[in-house]
Amino acid sequence: MKHPVRVKLEAGEKYLFCTCGNSDDGVLCDGSHKGSTFVPREFIATRTAESYLCRCKKSYNGVYCDGNHAKRESLKLDFLDS
Ligand code: FES
Questions:
Q1: pLDDT of 14-55, one tens digit each?
Q2: Where is the Iron-binding zinc finger CDGSH type domain (predicted)?
Q3: Nearest C-alpha to atom 4 of ligand 1 is from which residue?
Q4: Among 2, 5, 17, 20, which is best to mutate for testing ligand 1, by the most ligand atoms less than 8 A from CB?
Q5: What is the pLDDT of residues 58-77, one digit of tens each?
Q6: What single string gives the DSSP state of each residue in 7-69?
């Protein structure tokens, strides 16, 4: 299961959310997508806080975790991630 990653975000700062899933932490782009068709998703933090960013890439709450990874586990759908 791909749990969310807690990241300290600063209000007004621009971040690049990893959409390929290959970055080291799985949530912030580190350039690992190069050579693929994926591009990072830019977002600006609206508040300074520790936030849980989505790593399963199935959240309906943008870059933020909405708990969908846990729903997938309860339905035993993790084989779809491999
Ligand atoms: S490393 Fe995944 S989008 Fe850049």
A1: 999 999 999 999 899 999 999 999 999 999 999 999 999 999
A2: 2-39, 42-75
A3: 29
A4: 20
A5: 999 999 999 998 886 666 65
A6: EEE-TT-EEEE-SSS-SSSSSB--STTTTSS---EEEE-SSSEEEEE-SSS--SSTTB--SHH
